[in-house]
Amino acid sequence: MIFGAIVAGGTGTRMGISDMPKQFLPLGKEKKPIIIHTLEKFLMCTELDFVYLGVHKDWVDYTHELLKKYIINNYQKKIFVVEGGTTRNLTIINMINKIEENHGESSDHILVTHDAVRPFLTLKMIENNIENARKHRVCDTVIPAIDTIIESTNHDFITTVPARKNLYQGQTPQSFYASEFKNLYNNLTPDEQNNFTDACSVFVRNNIPVKLVDGAGFNIKITTVSDYRIANSIIEGDIID
Amino acid sequence: MINCVYQLASPGNFSIKYSELNLNTSLIIRPLYMSICHADQRYYLGLRDMKKLREKLPMALIHESVGEIIYDPTDTYKPGHKVVMVPNSPDKNYKTNSIIYENYQKNSKFLSSGHDGFMREFVDLPADRVVSVNNIDIKISSICEFISVAVHAVERFKNIAHEIRENITIWGDGSLAYVLSCVIQNEFPGTKLTIIGKNEFKLSKFWFADNIYLTDDLPKNFQTDHAFECVGGDYSHDAINSIINHINPQGTAILLGVSENKIAINTRDILEKGLTFVGSSRSGRTDFEKAASILENSKIQKRLEQIIFEDAPVRSIADIHRVFKTDLNTPFKTIFKWEL
Fold this sequence. Notes:
The structure holds 2 protein chains of 2 kinds. By secondary structure, chain A is an alpha/beta fold. Chain A has helices at about 35-45, 60-70, 75, 90-105, 125-135, 180-185, 190-195, 200-205, 225-235; strands spanning about 1-10, 25, 30-35, 50-55, 80-85, 110-115, 140-145, 170-175, 210-215, 240. In chain A, strands 5-4-1-6-8-7-9 form a 7-stranded mixed β-sheet, with helices on both faces. By secondary structure, chain B is an alpha/beta fold. Helix content of chain B is about 30%, strand content about 25%. Chain B is built from 11 helices and 19 strands. Chain B has helices spanning about 40-45, 50-55, 140, 145-160, 175-185, 200-205, 235-245, 265-275, 285-295, 300-305, 315-330; strands spanning about 1-10, 15-20, 25-35, 60, 65-70, 80-85, 90, 110, 115, 125, 130, 165-170, 190-195, 210-215, 225-230, 250-255, 275-280, 310, 335. In chain B, about 45% of the residues are buried. The mean pLDDT of chain B is about 95. The interface of A and B includes residues 32, 41, 120, 124 and 218 of A. Strand 10 (about 240) of chain A pairs antiparallel with strand 2 of chain B, so a sheet runs across the interface.
């Protein structure tokens, strides 16, 4: 089976403008929460059997209320809300555990994981992820790096300036076989588990080739106040591409 | 949900509009294949009047498309069902038995003329604006709107032209003339069909017609009971006056060619012969239904395959430019898979 896994475990500490985690902030003229925009795009993908939402434990009830308010009845049965973990990868593990509990363990379960705060993804990106996960076991959505990236190991002076042509900015979705991710994650050291901020790092650590899938510049992650403003202006205005 | 709408911002320039799409009320359709119309090409190249361009752009192009149902609140169609989308959108007060066809209603909207066409990630339409084509080859279905325009012209003809229909002649050798000839032969199997055009290569595709003539090789005594004009542009003048010369008294001429400029025509002979000139433009839902049923005929499908050129899929804005450029160099219809 194929599952959407929307990661929304954050509590909004980076936004600093609201007590509400950023994935629940309203976006667009209809003031629909960001997470609902993202979820609706996943619901349009007929290849996905179910969509799981991993949210912080304090916001589980609130999320259920949002689903009742915004999601049409036909789609309610496709959605499960799971309590998130303390890290992004633990939230994914919690979702995998719940998937195995609900639908049985299987080495064929594919997970399309995505940040709740990237509501501009397209259906095509989800489909490309599914296709590439099937073909290459694991894939990551990226765009070529635009800015020159500087590395500084002492946080004071430049250590290296890597060649930009080989650099990409990671986005989501990231997609892979659920059981493989779980096994690899469980075999990491506690330090590695804490340091790896995304799922693909776990595969790279184990020398498993991760296929690149085309993302898009507009697939922005709404993390800061200015991102939030940009997102609202994108959705209400026209931008030349 | 946020929907990507690929608009022509100005001739040769596209922009993406991110608009909110409400899932509660409309059918959600994902376009799968599209076909380019001359009207789209005129916007893309900026060949329309500047005032009109300023009025209508930015706007998503394309009004010929087949898609799949993603969501249907009326439960008429299951997800994945293939449908063609009707770009004409009549006023909510329009009654289907109205004397005036839906495509000529003053308050009708047309998607890709002043309103966004089908170059979008998803299209939201009321249930009566889609027609099922689930059992028809998807590439052929992509030109269903184009067929429906020919069906509509024939419908107008049936209702207006007198019963002597031994000969019908089409002036023009392009895509519209081709599909019209298929529809006419389907509707009037006993009628002799003649095609008059300027391009020998294009005319050779009309092998199934009874007579084919180059415009400068038309016999002086050539006569036809009725005529369809599919020339348009600057040559409308020549075509319409040739029709007036060769059509029999009280004949009906259906005009389908679009011209940006005004055309001088021989009204003296129109009066003397008692001719009827009928404008025919676009189509409505019933024409789409008829077009879809015609497309189920495998013989007609094979004929239509002859005028379809499939370009590579569209996966980016650069690809949209590519298909419009390809279309300039293909003699008939350019279709492409929509993967945005």
